[in-house]
Amino acid sequence: MPPSGPAAIAPAEMSVTSQQVRHIAKLARIAMSDEELARLEPELNNILGWVDQLAEVNTDGVEPLTAVIEQKLRLRDDVVNDGNIRDEVLANAPEAQHGFFAVPKVIE
Amino acid sequence: MSEITSKTIAELRAGLRAGEFSAREIAEAYNAAVAASKLLNAYTVETPEDALAAAEAADKARGQADLPSLAGIPLGIKDLFATRGVDTTAGSNILKGFKPPYESTVTANLRKAGAGMLGKLNMDEFAMGSSNETSAYGPVISPWRRKGSNVGLTPGGSSGGSAAAVAAEIAPGVTGTDTGGSIRQPAAFVGISGIKPTYGRCSRWGIVAFASSLDQAGPMAKTVRDCAILLEAMAGFDPKDSTSLDLPVPQWEKNLSSDLRGKRVGIPREYRIDGVPDDINALWDRGIEWLKDAGATPVEISLPHTKYALPTYYIIAPAEASSNLARYDGVRYGLRETGNDGLDGMYSATREAGFGAEVKRRVMIGTYVLSAGFYDAYFTKAQKVRTLIKQDFANAFKQCDVILTPTAPSAAFGIGETTDPLAMYLNDVFAVPASLAGLPAMSVPGGLDANGLPLGLHLIGNELDEQTVLDAGLAIEERAGFTARPEKWW
Fold this sequence. Notes:
The structure holds 2 protein chains of 2 kinds.
Chain A: H1 18-27, H2 34-51, H3 86-90, E1 96-97, E2 100-101
Antiparallel strand pairs in A: 1-2
Chain B: H1 2-5, H2 9-17, H3 23-35, E1 43-46, H4 48-61, E2 74-78, H5 105-112, E3 116-121, H6 160-167, E4 173-178, H7 184-190, E5 193-196, E6 216-221, H8 224-234, E7 264-268, H9 278-293, E8 297-301, H10 309-324, H11 342-354, H12 357-369, H13 375-396, E9 402-406, H14 421-425, H15 432-437, E10 441-448, E11 454-461, H16 466-480
């Protein structure tokens, strides 16, 4: 196994509190009951505790991977190449009105 | 028509050209087999008229010299591929009723090659799972059973419906997708072949996104040759996918050769891990002998960061998933739950009702590792380890041409038997490193374990070298003589 150098990251507190689980659910926009949050807390901590083993890998001077297979990112020509398909775009909308996606009122 | 459904794609192709049967007969045989397979729960939608329409076109074109490669071959399509006008739900309630107004590039390519569609295949929700148990449609039941038992087994996942369909001969070939083993592990569990090509070979356009830096489409079929035929039709440059490789598609089928003289086969010592059944290690040893018999030279290699691949994957894949799945908000397609708290409440209520437990778990993990204060410690760290994993393979391929390992650390397990998420993740311990490095990798059946269940051998090739992977797969196929099929109970 690769040596873990003294600079290997060992974050002080890599577990989540119930407060944090509630906050993550809010960030993820998933409504959750107190029971669900309570069930998730140990599950998430189990997984996070397990991925914490990456801290023992010495990554000093290692660049984070950005391209899986080396290639130049292409630019396309700056031209309109589709459009006039409003009805197709709206066809799957749970609610569409007057040619728009409709959502609950956001401005009083 | 059981004769027709037991044939390989290469045999169907030849028989059709020789006039032994019509494309209509092929489509009808498969449509009937599909309709009689409800107990397997492999198909989420059946499209017999689609298969018949393609058959009609093929029969009309028969006798033409340039009949396309898949003319008159009906295929099963994983529910992750957008198919125009046909329900595409990624196995999730949140996409219930979604009928794409467009066709994915991969399925469009298959159609261009003359293939028809038998239906959409069940899968783990958003391809997140290794047993097909996270599907909103319920689990696929493997056609295989343990000797003397009628316990329902999983076909693996996430391409579980795809795997079961080929094994049960309710499709001659299928599409799968592989983010961290989702083609290879199910292929191994049901005794068929499946290949994930180099990242970028198959366009991701129109495939419901899970983890975009890992997702790759690939074929699953009875034989290595069939996989080569299908992959040639699926692959190709697509300007609509920014990571699509702008390279010609090699003639993998034409160049297939099981003569491995001069090839070196790497055997990574880090893949000998505790807790793997003896049957699997014994098969691995037989695989080495088979490749030696084909002319290859085995060399011991080291992939030092293997142990860190799975935890790296379980940071990167959920991070990308949490970002990709942000689009399911109840506005543009799929499910909407209004909740009682305005627009934000609608988002949260929709996602609560629409996502299953495993998807929620991964979106939560992904949200956390990308959140302020934790991004560097988790996500950046994982991307650095991913660089090291990729370097491990680059170093290994200086010493060898292809790598041989087992596909999965166990044979198929029973439905409901694995409840701990971490234990489930370990299914992909041998598959995930190649995914992180974007390398082509394939599973081919090697034999049966003591319970009579299939076991797979796993070949990993260098970037863009699908040919050596397929060649070594063919060498194993010819020597393993794997002809076992599940006894029909469905």
